[in-house]
Amino acid sequence: MNKQLKFLTRTVFIMFLALFFSVTMIQFVNADELRANELNMRTVKNGYKIERGSILVDGDPIAYSTPTSDTYRFLRQYSDGALYSPITGYFSHSQGITGLESAMNQELSGSGDSLFFTRIMNTINGVAPQGSSVQTTIDPKVQASAAAAMTEQGFEGAVVAIEPKTGRILALVSTPSFDPNLLSSNSDAEIIANYSQLDKDPGQPLQNRAIAGDLYHPGSVYKLLVAAAAIENGEATPSSQFANPAELPLPQTSNVMQNASRTTCGTGDKATLEQAIVMSCNIPIAELAMKMDPDTVPEMARAFGFEQELSVPLTVTPSVSPTPEDKAQTALSSIGQLDVRATPLQMAMVSAGIANGGTVMKPTLVDQVITPDLRVSTQVTPEEFAKPISEKTASAVAGMMEKGVSAQEGLARQSGIPGVRVAGKTGTAENGTTAEGNALPFTLWYTGFAPVDDPKVAVAVVVEDGGGEAYGYEGGSYDLPTAVGKRVMEAVLSE
């Protein structure tokens, strides 16, 4: 009997310890994570008990709370909702929270540590609780220009503009977009109906293409990383020469690689690395990549941010650059195909790092957190993310990108701005074929920065489906994303 009692006592004691440990983890260790979970409806409903702080662009509220006479007490509203929804996300009592509404929920709801003593004093004094406001880094003129450049043409895709020296995100656009006011009313039935309609929309407006989603094959903009890796590791210089055939048999396969022109890269027997970047030739880049260790380029991509967790503070889906298994995969990966995938934010970081002398600054959407009594409780300062290449390598790559804009044969020449030194690179990514063997629509890219001598902005643009039905869903439309990129850079430089 004593033996059984001892066993029972020990079992109960172990169960008590397990329960104590579990409760401790939930209430203390995981509390912030659980509160921040966008599916935690208690967090959302508690948020309606206070006046939530505003999300600001250049001091003006783009998300704010207004009092109501119903049980929710406050209604979340959005100015220019569709323009800023990739940034704000939504705050909905039946569909959860996304965007900065989620990432900065503690500050906006007034539950952050910075307002601890303020909450105590408000309780003592009977003052209604109120959340802090979040000042973003977004430039309203640049955001509006980027969105207009995409929507006026009916493009699906995304635009990201970054200040290279600080990492401040000046524009973050995803199209098609949606109006978060549709999900923030105090009618559950209305919200559910609106969400269902948005969720079923074939254009997927709820997907933030700038930082998440299914990601994109980067195509030829990925060649910047091949060039950076080769120059940084002493494998090549811009003047290095490569064999210049019109077709390149891929090792141990029956497939051949061609340049986009289906001809040689220029007219000579040899082509330089600079020619390959300026004219966006595939074969010289593939030859260079196959000459190096198969992990050289993926390692450079990771140094720029591929495969890394990143918060801006919106959670960014990591871009992908796996190590190729053989020479054929190395060749295909080097031109941004196969399993290589990237977000527009990641490609903007690549251009920004090149522009900033080889140093990539950590991108951010938040500039300040301002308390209800107008104190700045948090000031976000520029932070170095990585230094993947030397200043010398960055200068060499930037020089090739600049010639891609200034040279007559440069495919990025449409992004030229009179009186300004612009560096740019185009890209066209193939996306396979249908079950019937027909080519799927292409993905079009542009990335670049300006001015070359004092960079104020780095931009990445992606246009899905070759520009859409109006453009025949075809590749080679270099002027489409390039024109968008030019317009965004002009918006920054005009200020």
TrEMBL record:
It comes from the Bacteria. InterPro entries: Beta-lactam/transpept, Beta-lactam/transpept-like, PBPA_dimer, PCN-bd_Tpept. Residues 52-134 form the Penicillin binding protein A dimerisation domain. Pfam families: PBP_dimer_2, Transpeptidase. Residues 157-476 form the Penicillin-binding protein transpeptidase domain. PANTHER family: PENICILLIN-BINDING PROTEIN 4B, PEPTIDOGLYCAN D,D-TRANSPEPTIDASE. This is Penicillin-binding protein.
